[in-house]
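ingest -> validate -> predict -> emit
validate: passed (alphabet ok, no gaps, 284 aa)
predict: started
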Amino acid sequence: MSTLFGVPVDAAYHLVLALTNVLTPVLGGPAAIAGIIIVTIAVRLLVSPLTFRALRGQAAQARLAPEIQRLRQRHAKQPDRLQRELTALYTREGTSMFAGFAPLLVQWPVFSVLYLLFRTPTVAGAQNRLLSRDLLGVPLGSHWLSGAGILSVHGVVFLSVLAVLAAACWYAARVARRALPQPAPASRARAGSARAGSAPAGSARAGRAPADAQPGSQALTAVGKIAPYLTVLIAAFAPLAGVIYLVTSTSWSAAERLVLAARTKPAAPQGLTAGPGRKRPATT
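emit:
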């Protein structure tokens, strides 16, 4: 392989092939699949500090999104002032605008190496022997659309693996949505609007900010619902070995998000809970 990732792909190939040969006397045919899964998990463990850092950065960006929107509206005609305010905000919160995706960019070459390994027919100047192994008689180098049909063994195996991948994508997206800050209840939003209406004109801007930010939030929500399933679309055109890698990696991502969500439960917003000795307002 003469690409930029040629040397690391060759090294990863020899590692997975050696592990497959070790597991073959124990597992037989599925040894190559076990090798793909083990190496994928091992790599994900190695880069997990970067992953958790990126996930925390994404959570911080989502939490600060309303305040960032207000600053952009308030200083739309003062770019220098806007930049200073944003820098001060990120400094106070201990994060940055790059915290959510910079660690992911560092991981991208690693995951690219693995994906290339499981989809390239020729590695280290010879045939990729991993792709000659099979799952229930379906070669790991075969593609879904090149099989005998949906009702054949080839089609059923691919559809089953793709269904597992879709379920993993759905669960990862669900965990990600649950980790995001939740909007205020409608009743509190209406109460805030009513207070803003009776407040002086200078303070009414703060009451309108959440409504102004709503269209952008809706767009981000729509993109967030669609984006995870792009992995399934990519897998539909990948060889079976690549699909197994994507299933393993996506499932691991869902587990990482679940662990992070359990570790960093968001604190209750101010004013939603009554402190010691503080009475809740009476309701009529």
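Residues 48-74 form the longest helix (27 residues).
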